[in-house]
């Protein structure tokens, strides 16, 4: 019992958390073997109690009750520790993945030149990067906070706070870059050409309608 109570480390990395989880599972297997042996002892105790000729009930039963109590208490502590270590192991895996996600985001932002010719391609890469949050079994980076906060323990609070700050910083930089790239990809509106109207042709000259002189028709003389 004292050894189990002293097991308080949960690990500050996925690798260490995995080691501690394996160790706790090994302890639980040993405990199960001990429990089977204890069960045999309890059966023997009940046999002695029924005989009533060798050992009286008042001597055997308290010992059986103590064995049951200790076994139940050890199982409770071991199950609780296994549950804590399993949750922390999952948390540390998310922390490692989140740190890698942030590093990839910073690298991607640094590789972009903010040029109009590559704006569409850069925008697509950034949107794909944001969508890669699904690799964490999440739909968006914003869900990191909720998942982390639910799994945080006093021992991991500082570490998780640092990771959450990194996620916020990288997400903000990505949002700003996406907004800038979208502006670059917009086609400028076509300029409206102003057409100078030609002067209207008057229907008649300023001096009035023209008069055409009719030439007199000459009569042909008969020969």
Describe the 3D structure.
The chain has helices at residues 2-5, 14-51, 57-111, 119-131, 143-151, 157-185. The protein has 223 residues and is mostly helical. The chain has a single domain, classed as Methane Monooxygenase Hydroxylase, Chain G, domain 1 (Up-down Bundle), CATH 1.20.58. The longest helix has 55 residues, at 57-111. The radius of gyration is 44 Å and the shape is rod-shaped.
In short:
By secondary structure, this protein is mainly alpha-helical.
> Helices and strands: which structural class?
mainly alpha
Quaternary status: single chain
Assign a percent range to the helix content: 55-70%
How far apart are the termini?
Answer: 159 Å
Query: Low-confidence parts lasting 5 or more residues at pLDDT below 50?
Result: none
- CATH topology annotation: Methane Monooxygenase Hydroxylase, Chain G, domain 1
* Name of the CATH first level: Mainly Alpha
Q: Strand share of the residues?
A: under 5%
Can you write the helix and strand succession as a string? HHHHHH
Mean pLDDT, all residues: 80
- By DSSP, the count of extended strands is 0
Main beta sheet strand tally, sense and closure: none
What is the second-level CATH architecture? Up-down Bundle
When the domains are counted, the total is 1
Compute the number of helices.
Answer: 6
Shape call: rod-shaped
- Rg, rounded, reads 44 Å
